[in-house]
Tir chaperone protein (CesT) family protein (Pseudomonas abietaniphila), 148 residues
Amino acid sequence: MATATALINALGKQLGTPLQLQNGVCALFDGSREVVIVEIPGAGDVAILHCKLPLPADPRLHERLLRLNFDTAAMSGCWLALDQQSHVRLCAELPIEALSELTFVHWVQGFVQQTREIPTMLRMPHTAPAKPAAPRPLPVGSARPMIS
């Protein structure tokens, strides 16, 4: 199992810049744009990634956020959330014990790629609400479904 410091050092080596955790957080920016925030809390048992996505604060977007969260293939282990300022954030979490230096670097790189793809997915027109693939069974003695 790699230590938090070893993981951050491996990421810094890959990026060609020295990185360090400050109070369990390492924030990467491109100019003023947030690229990824890496958090490894003091207990050091999980690594958390999150990033503010370039999306407007729009309550009409919430349904699409929830629908996309349910699409496990599209989300690749990530989820969407709203922060205290109602900004949409992409989030991910893995146990430190599952990460080597190489897998950590690849995980962060994949996460950053997701931050580029998810806004496009959210801007696409959404489809009608999901419907069950097969008709729901009728309750015993009933001519109507219990849930419609």
About this structure: Helices lie at 4-15, 62-70, 72-75, 101-123. The chain has one domain: 4-123. The two ends are 49 Å apart (CA to CA). Residues 4-123 form a domain with the Yope Regulator; Chain: A, fold (CATH 3.30.1460.10).
